[in-house]
Amino acid sequence: xxxxxxxxxxxxxxxxxxxxxxxxxxxxxxxxxxxxxxxxxxxxxxxxxxxxxxxxxxxxxxxxxxxxxxxxxxxxxxxxxxxxxxxxxxxxxxxxxxxxxxxxxxxxxxxxxxxxxxxxxxxxxxxxxxxxxxxxxxxxxxxxxxxxxxxxxxxxxxxxxxxxxxxxxxxxxxxxxxxxxxxxxxxxxxxxxxxxxxxxxxxxxxxxxxxxxxx
Length: 215
Prior knowledge:
Layout: H1 3-15, E1 23-25, E2 33-36, E3 45-47, E4 49-52, H2 64-67, E5 75-78, E6 84-87, E7 93-102, E8 105-106, E9 108-115, E10 123-129, E11 135-144, E12 146-152, E13 155-156, E14 167-174, H3 185-214
Antiparallel strand pairs: 1-14, 2-4, 3-6, 4-5, 5-14, 6-12, 7-11, 7-14, 8-13, 9-10, 9-12
Helix pairs in contact: 1-3
């Protein structure tokens, strides 16, 4: 294998995503009876987060408790609309993404803050959700000691039998390595041309050195 090809392959290997090591928390192994998510679930600790299965109860028809379930029959929610926390377990963690829905309100504002050990949030993201469709939100925050979820505002969706600023969370993905994006094809072409130019320059320098020694 020549030096140019070896260098190109090395760069390609570095740019490709690492093998998936994510944990997707579906909450489907929990009780689903509105009780608190136990510490240790998913290797994390939980504050003011519960799990719920609306089953076939018509009281919840049309709400985010039904529409926010991405897989299975159980999703998580912030109990009593309280500010909710996810805390590190044995080591810092990565928050990759998750699906969010308003339990009772459209235009519900959710602010997610990631902490790395200090009192000030190292990462912050705010977004708006409704009751009819789960919204995928991507974070890819690393080295976290805790994450705080705060839900406010919005307006009660018509036809629902209750109200509140609870949000629904499902398929929360954590601890997948965050890697650099794979270059687009055009970028690969530029990289290959660059490697070629570097290789040609090196060959010219070697040729000049050989001629000088021969002289």
